[in-house]
């Protein structure tokens, strides 16, 4: 068993890598003059950060990097209750450090303004890239987090092909971003949402509740559904019907 201190460090660094790489691609590179990476590039950046960390620290902490994943794995019977709070705290610390470093770097550009989507914050209404309202944002965050946890639970099942889970999970996060960046700027991860929102403040902070409630709800539902879906029927014992 890996000591808790090492697992928490891995979760902190991994979440830092996810938020800095994903949000950093959106803030620094998405619209760079003439050669910006755009929506597709940002989606790939989020998927690649998770894929690389899954191979790097998956064997240390499980590479959750996301409070919704931690809670979803608990709901799926894969994670102990006692470890939930420490993992979530570590993930939040990593997300906040990443957002702070990203703000420091982005502020070096003379025209940078910390407002609206200045740090790739998540939001709905005025803070939605496409102007989508609360109901749409809530629905897509629940559905996509449900799908994300389903991929995680399925690809890490001991009956699944070994060694391919990080690829499936990274590609799933890429797909999720391709679908939902226009709607909410894509969360499915309360830690990813919290870091930028704390620094931007204002509407971003007021809307942060949705990016905790919806992802966690989707994750809990996925955990329960997968426990039912993956349960194996026990073979009848001779004499049971006697």
From TrEMBL:
Q: Does the keyword Transmembrane apply?
A: yes
Membrane-crossing residue ranges in chain numbering: 39-57, 84-106, 132-152, 164-183, 203-226
Site description Selectivity filter, residues in chain: 46, 177, 186, 192
Molecular function terms, GO-annotated = water channel activity
Q: Which GO terms describe its cellular component?
A: plasma membrane
Chain span(s) of sequence motif NPA 2:
189-191
Which residues are tagged with the site Involved in tetramerization or stability of the tetramer?
23
**InterPro entries assigned:** Aquaporin-like (IPR023271), Aquaporin_transptr (IPR034294), Aquaporin_Z (IPR023743), MIP (IPR000425), MIP_CS (IPR022357)
* Record has Transcription regulation as a keyword: no
Write out the entry's keywords from A to Z. Cell inner membrane, Cell membrane, Membrane, Repeat, Transmembrane, Transmembrane helix, Transport
Q: Where in the cell is it found?
A: Cell membrane
**What Gene3D superfamilies would the database entry show?**
Glycerol uptake facilitator protein
Recorded domain comment = Aquaporins contain two tandem repeats each containing three membrane-spanning domains and a pore-forming loop with the signature motif Asn-Pro-Ala (NPA).
Q: How does it assemble?
A: Homotetramer.
Function, as annotated: Channel that permits osmotically driven movement of water in both directions. It is involved in the osmoregulation and in the maintenance of cell turgor during volume expansion in rapidly growing cells. It mediates rapid entry or exit of water in response to abrupt changes in osmolarity.
Quote the HAMAP family the UniProt record gives: Aquaporin_Z (MF_01146)
What NCBIfam families does the entry give?
MIP (TIGR00861), PRK05420.1 (NF003838)
What is the name of this protein?
Answer: Aquaporin Z
